[in-house]
Fold this sequence. Notes:
The chain is an alpha+beta fold.
Amino acid sequence: MLYRNLLRTISNEEITLLSQIKKEYFINNSGKSNYYEIRNFESQYFYDFINDLEFNSLYNVIPMVSIKGNPHDPYIVLSNSMLVTRYYNHRIIQYYLYSKYHQTIKDFCMDNLEEYLLILKYKKIQMDKHQINKKFK
């Protein structure tokens, strides 16, 4: 129950970055990454991404902009790693990444960027539930 409540509070009101959480709470941050493509920052894509995540799981998400949509080609990382759960408000992530995208366009003088893909590189993080229960009981 405590673990589920923690998942519900992460990134529910604002973006939570992985760097904001103490490392001793995580067992495993390695594993196979998955990729989710979003076109034109459409809200439905963000909604679908969140709803495809497993309940009671925590994910590390790295947002990237790519011209070709291939994670092996050059890309720009828009933000530090974010923590995301199924309980996440999809509009918060949409707004946050949209503002990061426009900041990137401005900072790198890329006004002529017409076609691009937002790629969310994500993987599940296994947390040490014993450490969490010990800390928050």
